[in-house]
Design brief:
By secondary structure, the chain is of the alpha/beta class. 31% of the residues lie in helices and 25% in strands. The protein folds into 2 domains: 203 residues, UDP-n-acetylglucosamine1-carboxyvinyl-transferase, Chain, CATH 3.65.10; 208 residues, Enolpyruvate transferase domain (UDP-n-acetylglucosamine1-carboxyvinyl-transferase, Chain, Alpha-beta prism), CATH 3.65.10.10. The structure holds uridine-diphosphate-N-acetylglucosamine and phosphoenolpyruvate.
């Protein structure tokens, strides 16, 4: 298991190119299952989660190849298996995204229940419920969701009790090939939903309303191959901007999308950052110690839960006290005890972390527990007074392409230590 060694104290300075979004690429690759023809996806980030997705698609029988560093082609016409095994699903919860496409295309899917993870229980009942409303028969047996339908899924009006990103995506993909019209109410509005809808429409689907809370999908009998460029990763962008802010640095994120980051940019400005944007770049310049900012996570367009841990790190180093409230996942504060070991002053009260800024963190050996918690520890290491070792960085490799190379290029002293 690899670790990062970080010697803190360097101001980040320069330009960083943002990769394609993990959370857009994953559903888009799974949507490739919906057509027999070749789809070619560009701006695919090189991540462990993408490798897991490729493995899953190949196990199903699809042909997958890298045409260039970030360009992936999928031909799913050869799929002859319909099972996503526990072995793969346990390493990547987003494997659940094969359920809708497999069922819609082949009338049959078996997907291991993902179970909980470090950040919460994360049930998938809304995925199952929605597909049942579209006529599927679904049983959960021996840890597997076993779904089938005779003929095509049927369009339905589905109200989602809770806003779910992958739930909305699974149902949208299934509805694309259903007979009749599906309406998804209380749908997720995340930019990744819009990217998936754009991809589906390029394949010949009829999806409207993406980005609003009501999606309408007129089912079509078949979809065609196409090309698509994955949107920029807004969470990677936000992570680099926070890293720049806490090191009082000056960083320009290229290939970034400011429109997808309104809530995060406004909190960074409130913290004292000077931010300028163009169509596809965001520049942050921080000349003072950040001011602490209150944050409350909620579905898009509110503040994203995937940026919560990074803002806890910003606040523990900022001037003043702040409340960070997590409303999406019940256990997403695993970074708090690790940051406390580095000298952070944080009190946890229910789903709120109350921070009182300190002027310095001390390096320590800390453990990454999930993807964004890992990012928050790396950021803390960038400013700590002595060496920080972040263990279990396989979590960070799920979601950040070459993060240490990108940070080094900005002036950080960070190295990967390979351990067996
Ligand atoms: C691959 C991907 O895109 N992952 C993102 C996706 O995860 P994911 O799609 O898994 O998260 P959801 O939006 O589904 O979860 C939101 C909330 O709904 C609950 N819920 C969800 C489904 C369900 O059937 N029943 C239910 O109760 C969850 O437990 C959670 O409390 O959105 C999250 C919330 O923005 C992000 O943190 C993840 O990075
Ligand atoms: C929670 C995340 O991802 P996943 O849903 O894949 O676990 C994330 O990207 O922060």
């Amino acid at each position: 298991m690899d670790s990062f060694k970080i010697n803190g104290g360097n101001r980040l300075n320069g330009e960083v190119t943002i990769s394609g979004a993990k959370n857009a690429a994953l559903p888009i690759l799974m949507a490739g299952i919906l057509t027999d023809q070749k789809v070619q996806i560009t701006n695919v980030p090189r991540l462990n989660d993408i490798n897991t997705t490729i493995k899953l698609l190949e196990q199903l029988g699809a042909q997958v190849s890298w045409d260039a560093e970030n360009t992936l082609s999928i031909t799913a016409g050869s799929i002859d298996q319909h099972v996503a095994s526990y072995e793969l699903v346990k390493t990547m919860r987003a494997s659940i995204l094969v359920l809708g496409p497999l069922l819609a295309k082949f009338g049959h899917a078996e997907v291991s229940l993902p179970g909980g993870c470090a950040i919460g229980a994360r049930p998938v009942d809304l995925h199952i419920q929605g597909l049942k409303q579209m006529g599927a028969t679904i049983d959960v047996e021996q840890g597997y969701i076993k779904a089938k339908i005779d003929g095509r899924l049927q369009g339905a009006t589905i109200f989602m009790d809770t806003v779910s990103v992958t739930g909305t995506e699974n149902l949208m993909m299934a509805a694309a090939l259903a007979e009749g019209t599906t309406v998804i109410e209380n749908a997720a509005r995340e930019p990744e939903i819009v990217d998936l809808a754009d991809f589906l429409n390029a394949m010949g689907a009829k999806v409207s309303g993406a980005g609003s809370d009501t999606l309408t999908i007129e089912g079509v009998p078949s979809l065609n191959g196409t090309q698509h460029r994955v949107m920029a990763d807004r969470i990677e962008t936000g992570t680099f901007l926070v890293a720049a802010a806490v090191t009082q640095g000056h960083v320009k994120c290229l290939n970034a999308d400011p429109k997808a980051l309104d809530a995060v940019l406004s909190k960074l400005q409130e913290a004292g950052a000077n931010i300028t944007t163009g169509d596809d770049w965001i520049e942050l310049n921080m000349t003072t110690r950040p001011k602490a900012v209150n944050v409350k996570t909620a579905p898009h367009p509110a503040f994203p839960t995937d940026m919560q841990a990074q803002f806890v790190t910003l606040n523990v180093l900022a001037e003043g006290s702040a409340h960070v409230t997590e409303t999406i996942f019940e256990n997403r504060f695993m970074h708090v005890p690790e940051l406390q070991r580095m000298g952070a002053n944080i009190a946890l009260e229910g789903n709120t972390a109350i921070t009182t800024g300190v002027t310095e963190l001390n390096g320590a050996q800390v453990m990454a527990t999930d993807l964004r918690a890992s990012a928050s520890l790396v950021i803390a290491g960038l400013v700590a007074s002595s060496e920080t070792q972040v263990d279990r960085i396989y979590h960070i490799d799920r979601g950040y392409q070459h993060i240490e190379d990108k940070l080094q290029a900005l002036g950080a002293d960070i190295t990967r230590v390979k351990t067996s």
